[in-house]
User: What shape does this take?
Amino acid sequence: MAVVRDLRALLRVRDFRRLLGVRLLSQGADGVYQVALAAYVVFSPEKQTSAAAIASAMAVLLLPYSLIGPFAGVLLDRWRRRQVFLHGNLLRALLTALTAALMASHVPGQLFYVSALSVTAVNRFVLAGLSAALPRVVDDGHLVIANSLSPTAGTLAATAGGGLAFVVRLLVSDSDAAVVLLGSVLYLCAALTSLTLAPELLGPERALLHPRLSTALAGTARALTAAVRHLAAPPRREAARALAAMTLMRFCYGALTVMLLMLCRYALSSTPGDGLRLLGLALGVSGAGFFAAAVVTPWSADRLGPGRWIAVCAAAAALLEPALGLPFTTVPLLASAFVLGLTTQGAKIATDTVVQSSVEDGFRGRIFSLYDVAFNVAFVGAAAVSALVLPSDGRSVVLVSTVAFTYAAVAIGMTRFELRRGSHERHNNSSRGGVVSEGG
Assistant: This one.
C-alpha cells in the first residue's frame, strides 16, 4: 500500500522521529494531566458537578490564554523552537509538581486553577511550535502523511496517557495528586528528548529572529496584522476557510465533550468511579477514531483534496452524531465517540496540511497560535452554551440537534467554496490554454 510505503519512508527520517518523540512524550503527559484534572473537578465523590461548573473550569483554564496567545505566536516566530520544547517542558514539569502539591494540600480552588492555567498556557507554546516545526524536518511531498502520523500519534499518546492515568488512579493509588506527578515525569522526559535535536534545525530562520524580548513584544500588533494579511491573501484563502471550518467543528467537539462528561457522571453510571471508568472507555474508543483518521485521511485528502475531505468529515458527523447520540445509551454513545474522533481528527489533519503548505515559515508560529486561540474560544463558547442547555443528567436533544446543524453548515460551506474554487481554476486553465493556442 502507498500509505504504508510513505510511512516507512517518513520514519526513516531521523529528525522527524526525534520531533515525533518530543510530541509523543509531551502529549502523553498532557493526557495524564487532563484526566487527573477531570477526575479532580468532575468525578470527585464529594463534588456535585454541573455543566455550569465544567464550563466555568474550562473558561478559567482556556480563556486567559486568548490574551497571551498572540504573544505566543510572535515569540514562536523569533525563538528557537527547539528551545521552546526544552524550556517549555521543563517548566511544565515544575508546574505540574506544584499542582500535585496543591491537590494533596486541599488548598482553595483559586490557587489550584492558577497552577493549572499556567500549565495550559505553556502547553500552547509547545503544541503550536510542534505544528510550525514539522515542515522543517519533512519535505513537501510527505507533508500530508506527516500531518496524518504526527498529530494523530500525539493524540493517541494523549489517549494512552489518559489510560495510564486511569490505571494509576483506579489500581495503584486513588490519588489525583499521584497521577499529576506521573505527568510531571513525562514532561521532564519530553524536555530531555528535545536535546537530541540540533538547536538551529527547527527554525525560524536567523534573519527573522529578534535578539531582545522587548523588541519582539513591541512589534506584536504589527506582526499579527501582517500574519492576518498574509492569511487573507488570495493564495491562502483555502487556508483561511479551512481554519474557519475547523473552529466551528471545534465548537461542536466542545459541546459534545461537556455532554459526555455529564452523561458519564450521572445518566449512565451509578457512582463516580463507574462514571470515570466509562469516560476512560469512551476516550479509548475516540482514540481508535483518531487512529482510523490517520489511516484514511492521506488517501482521501489526496484524491478529494483537503477542503473536500473536511466537507466529507463534517457531513458524516452531521448525519451520524444525532443518529448515535440521541438514544443517550452506552453503546450508541461509544459509537458516537468513534465517529467524533474520526471526523474531528480527519478534518484537523487536512486543515493543518493546508495551513502548513500555504503559509510561509516566518508566519507559521503566529498563525498556528491564532489557530489555537480560535480553538480555545470555540471550546469555551461551546461549554457555555452547554451550561445553558444541558439538564442535570446531560441528556439534551436540543444540544445534539444544534451540533448536527453546525456540522451540516460547515459541510455545505466548504462544498460551495471548493466548487467555486474548482470552477475558477478551470476557467484560468482554459484562458491560459486559449492564449497559448493563439500564440502558436
Summary: The two ends are 43 Å apart (CA to CA).
